[in-house]
Amino acid sequence: MALSYLRSSSSRSVNLLKPLSSSLPLRRPISTDTTPITVETSVPFTSHQCDAPSRSVETNPKELLTFFRDMALMRRMEIAADSLYKAKFIRGFCHLYDGQEAVAVGMEAAITKKDCIITAYRDHCTFIGRGGTLLEVFAELMGRQAGCSKGKGGSMHFYKKDSNFYGGHGIVGAQVPLGCGLAFAQKYSKDETVTFALYGDGAANQGQLFEALNISALWDLPAILVCENNHYGMGTAEWRAAKSPAYYKRGDYVPGLKVDGMDALAVKQACKFAKEHALKNGPIILEMDTYRYHGHSMSDPGSTYRTRDEISGVRQERDPIERIRKLILSHDLATEEELKDIEKEVRKEVDDTITQAKESPMPEPSKLFTNVYAKGLGVESFGADRKEVRATLP
Amino acid sequence: MLGVVRQKMLGQSLPKIRPAVSVLRSYSSAAKQMTVRDALNSALDEEMSADPKVFLMGEEVGEYQGAYKISKGLLEKYGPERVRDTPITEAGFAGIGVGAAYYGLKPVVEFMTFNFSMQAIDHIINSAAKSNYMSAGQMSVPIVFRGPNGAAAGVGAQHSQCYAAWYASCPGLKVLTPYSSEDARGLLKAAIRDPDPVVFLENELLYGESFPVSDEVLDSSFCLPIGKAKIERVGRDVTITAFSRMVGHALKAAEILEKDGIDAEVINLRSIRPLDRSTINASVRKTNRLVTVEEGFPQHGVGAEICASVVEESFAYLDAPVERIAGADIPMPYAANLERLAVPQVEDIVRAAKRACYRSVPLAAAA
Lengths: 394, 367
Prior knowledge:
The complex is a heterodimer of chains A (394) and B (367).
Chain A: E1 3-6, E2 14-17, E3 37-40, E4 46-48, E5 56-59, H1 61-86, H2 101-110, E6 116-118, H3 124-129, H4 134-141, H5 175-188, E7 195-200, H6 207-218, E8 223-229, E9 232-233, E10 236-237, H7 238-241, E11 256-260, H8 264-281, E12 284-289, H9 308-318, H10 320-330, H11 336-359, E13 380-382, E14 390-392
Parallel strand pairs in A: 6-7, 7-8, 8-12, 11-12
Antiparallel strand pairs in A: 1-2, 3-5, 4-11, 9-10, 13-14
Helix pairs in contact in A: 1-2, 1-10, 1-11, 2-8, 4-11, 5-6
Chain B: E1 32-35, H1 36-50, E2 54-58, H2 74-78, E3 83-85, H3 90-103, E4 106-110, H4 121-129, H5 131-134, E5 144-148, H6 164-168, E6 174-176, H7 181-193, E7 198-202, E8 210-213, H8 215-218, E9 230-233, E10 238-242, H9 245-259, E11 264-268, E12 271-273, H10 277-287, E13 290-293, H11 302-314, E14 323-325, H12 336-342, H13 346-356
Parallel strand pairs in B: 2-3, 2-4, 4-5, 5-7, 6-7, 10-11, 10-13, 13-14
Antiparallel strand pairs in B: 1-8, 6-12, 9-11
Helix pairs in contact in B: 1-7, 3-4, 9-13, 10-11
């Protein structure tokens, strides 16, 4: 039995023991093997006002394995969040990303942590992609001190400024002008980096998006607008919300690309292309054709406006993790057992982290009054009964 | 924070002999005069010069030299990278400003009037004001939203609203309301240097008014503290709070009241959020009577908050009910006579002060 011990994403050392009966020649551990492999994307890119990049994507065993592990982790994390929500450890809103993992991992593979990402409320996996930890996710979801926003933000308000992840926004569409503002600042600072502003098919009709796109095109900002088209804006199918659901074309004078968002390599290729484009020519739109298995949020069963057959059909035909699994197996980069072991390990990591997160305490009551301002000037703030609870803002 | 923050508590600690002409005050024998417009312009200029991260964005701020000429000369001096003319898309450019502030720049976003800020209010409140809190301190937003606020002259209902109460109710924002040129310079510089989102409410009718400014005020390091009111006129009998243009009205009212033997203390709030409750309460504890003055709609207004604060903190010191003078509870009419009735006048403040001193004339019959 070949056993591969692959530890968490922070340390990529591997101890790969191969059975004597293995017919494989002695090879480097797959997690450090960067021998190039070329793979074709599932479908060619469709472009608007630009030349589409090639379907042939360069990758390597290390990257494919990283994709597999990262997506498996994200998948397990979201499913565990579902259970935690039903067990009432998570309250309020919880918007899950399972099915869309390829967008998060493919994007990260094409960019650096100096590029910026901003998204809406379906942000758990994007946060992980930017280097956030599982503990920060679960603790924040449960409103604990160890959370990335110290329990003050909740599911929709994850941030990681040191890796240029700017949230985590609850108001549909607001993140797009904000993202264009990040791009403005990058250009102003001459950083030679770009911003990816993610939004959904529901947000694609927001006026402020077009306002920001107009300014970005006028000022040549390195802004990449990424429409994660999962075909439903909450309960409304795209054909009921948009006169033209060809979101990649909605930029009119701004070029666009339609991408199979369930294919991590296609996402990577598109993001790489977009980054090069944005640095030279200003804004570009990427439409990621993707799908969410869960409903809009945990309050939405997700089955009143779409059929179960549709959901299981996508899971069968287009699941992003299965796609990478098949790729890894067909290229002989790992065995089925090894991949299953990764999944088991990921599951354990998630379970252990949840236990750890549950031990993190709720925030201290005094934290009610922290961070209202960056510079509080010693002013007073009040609780519900201002004669009972007052504080000086630090 | 650059520069030295100086406390301008003149009038509180120094007993002054007031000349008959009230508003002018000399710090030196030859005080310079400066319009509010020039005060704002010079403040912007100095802050842009001192910090390359500061940039200006808004409609007509560049080539047009500013719709009200506040940004005159800045495009020529700093170039189009730092003085950005925007299309007429408030939601878009306010959001872009906030995004730039997230990244660490220091945008000054101009709304041609604050009536148009309603197009962008989601970004001011949800994207700017709340971010530092929601992110537990990761995302501070050092942005200034500035522009004329409140009534102008004959511009009608959609162009005359005062937004002080709305913005000041929101935690996470700082809301400033300059009156004089000294206020304009000191508060705008403080706002630009402040790491939090600041709503800076100017007044179109004040732009052309001149005020004396000392050498200290003209110095490029001059800055006023945020959250501190100024006692423009020391008095004993009744406290009158006001902000922005109404400070001028309150000072005129104080002159008239003086002839009737009522010595009014006029407080220029300068900062609506944080509200300087301690200065207001200390004053009321001294005078025992309060008149609040504001231009905006009366319901849920600034005066309501001040009244509540005084009732909570200084109830035993009140010798009379708190009086509120505010804009009329109607959309702003156009006809000059109706407009005059819709905005507080000096005589309204005088009348209210007399009521607070139990020296009023009988109430007019209800209409």
